[in-house]
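Reopening closed ticket. The problem is back. First fold of the pair:
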Amino acid sequence: MKKIFLLLFTLCTALLTAQENQIFTGVKGGYAIYEDSRYGDPFYISVCYVGEDSIVMRSYEPVTGDDFAAKVKFNLIDGIIDYDPDMLILKGELDTSEAAKRLLLTILNWANTWYNIKGNIGTETQFNGEGGYHFSFWIPVFQLSSIGKDRELKLITSGVAGNERDPAFMEFTGLPKASYSPSYSIRKGKPLTAEIDGISIPLDENWNKDGDSLYSISKFSDKDALFTIETVRPAASQINSTALFVTLSMLATDNQRLLANGSRVFITDGVFNLVKRTYDEKSGRVYIHQMQFLPRGNGYISVARLSVLETLYQKNKSYFNAILY
């Protein structure tokens, strides 16, 4: 678990300081990948912010294999975003396919639509704009989650690229298929109260204590289910808002790919909660992660985190949900 938080705080070094007239102020390397089914066969549109108001944009068509990517700088003139025509082609040709031809104007439209309402998005977990645009504050670049009543365009994954040619972004050709994961029913056992960092959590005898702050259920593997609480001070790493901390927590993955379907942020009684699905690249299995961000005063936040094999979670949903909710 601590590896995730170490990775998260490492990401803070990628944050950009807002400058006057700067368009983008998000995480450098933050990327979002969308599936677009508005024009027939589904294809992928990807955007990655690489700093200095520049974006790497990419289109990939699984049916034909056509693959186009370019680095484009954007400028803000009289409140309108336009692109610098001197773009850098990274792969393919701009006229290689209809998807590639549409890409630049599509991204330009997204940029202006987002820029005109970004002040209204704020820290909204779900903001519905005009024209069927839907946004959520944590999503990189344009904060765009979907377009259309039936989500004909939808976010499918996102993360933080190590560089503009990171294969997680640049070589993406589709979501991986999960490997077999076993499941079994869990009967609620004798109550066990876990005391971690001064917080009491209702567990039971199904959980084994592994160290001071980690509990696990390990029938099939050493991490069928894990629960921990860690108290951190985000501001010490220049993470100056809880919303930004939540954003980085969603994007930070360790040898895992975020699956946008089923991942969300919500607020209950003023407390941020996060649910994310991830595909583990080593095991090929899918996990559900629930995180709750509990303010402790003086800038400290206790993060309660439950991670469960998705198949095990689905079979015992009420059992696991009762721990944090």
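Second fold of the pair, where the issue appears:
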Amino acid sequence: MRRWFLVVLLLAILGGTGAGAYWLLNRDKTSADEVQDGLVDRFALDGVPFTFLYPDEFATTDPQPGTLWIAGIGPSDAIDVRRVLTSAPEVADLERIVRKNLTALPDVEILDSARIEVAEQQGVAFVIDSTAGEATLRSRLVYFTAEGATWQIGCQAQESAQVQVGAACDQVIGTLALR
């Protein structure tokens, strides 16, 4: 009887270890439901306290100065991630700071702003029009705090790609999760 108990205990320990190893190896992989939605790539960088899914047709490119990650479907049609402050102000203060900085930029027009929920916490989003050379860009800039810093996810597109980039931006924000 004692021998059976030891065998069952050993199998339970091995099973738990195997399940834990499987979880560790697969925790950042996408599920079948996510693949069906076209979200088959996951943003996850060391030192960045969040992850999200994005459409596989968005190709990652080398980040520009001040940008940690960028993926897009064209040179001006992209989604990027930046750490914009090394502090985490309250949402009202964050909204005021961002509005002040955006209005100080030439060729930028704020079209809309709203407080939104990002990863189960309050954030702020701005929709702006700006110009880059001859192109007019529509951007959605989403700001939120995580681990004592303020982050921006920027989604920008020329008119021809606004629907596709907008849908991808909705998916990014909707799947964003803090680690």
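Update: turned out to be a display glitch only; the data is intact. The beta strands are 41-43, 50-54, 59-61, 69-74, 77-85, 108-118, 121-132, 135-146, 149-157, 177-178. The chain has four helices and ten strands. Please close again.
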